[in-house]
């Protein structure tokens, strides 16, 4: 939708307004808004990973002090799973950011030089 026909922002906003009533119209469609939402979600993933890291450290300290395995099973393991998933998302974000910096700028096409017109009697005996 966004890449195929090269639509602009106004056309997509108008299409959203027309098809706002039917939620199934947007099923399995990726447009500029959806792509921007995905990128912003990935941009916050390093912050999520940091918050989960701090929560894991505090939970580990509480587990060591109280010496309770119930807290380990019900609190530490789910936090560790969410931390691992957010860490994968943060790595993906930094990888995408690195790849976007490595892309070469697109060179404009070179125009053909205009040749001078031939004389009318060119090629005649």
Number of domains: 2
Radius of gyration, rounded? Answer: 28 Å
Helical fraction equals 55-70%
> What is the averaged pLDDT score?
82
Q: Indicate the structural class.
A: mainly alpha
Short overview:
The chain is an all-alpha fold and 125 residues long. It has helices at 9-18, 32-43, 45-66, 69-102.
Explain how this protein is built:
With 125 residues, this protein is mostly helical. The protein has two domains: 1-36, no CATH class; 44-100. It is 62% helix and 0% strand. It contains four helices and no strands. α3 packs antiparallel against α4 (69-102). The mean pLDDT is 82.
Question: What are the key terms here?
Answer:
125 residues; mainly alpha; elongated; 4 helices; 2 domains; 62% helix
Write the layout of secondary structure elements.
Blueprint: H1 9-18, H2 32-43, H3 45-66, H4 69-102
Helix pairs in contact: 3-4
């Amino acid at each position: 939708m966004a890449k195929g026909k090269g639509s602009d922002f106004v056309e997509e906003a108008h299409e959203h307004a027309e098809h706002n009533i039917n939620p199934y119209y947007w099923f399995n469609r990726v447009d500029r808004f959806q792509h921007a939402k995905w990128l912003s979600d990935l941009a916050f993933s390093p912050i999520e990973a940091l918050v989960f890291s701090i929560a894991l450290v505090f939970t580990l300290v509480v587990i060591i002090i109280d010496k309770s395995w119930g807290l380990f099973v019900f609190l530490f393991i789910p936090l560790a799973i969410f931390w691992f998933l957010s860490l994968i998302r943060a790595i993906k974000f930094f990888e995408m950011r690195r790849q976007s910096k490595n892309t070469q700028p697109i060179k404009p096409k070179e125009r053909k030089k205009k040749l001078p017109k031939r004389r009318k009697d060119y090629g005649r005996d």
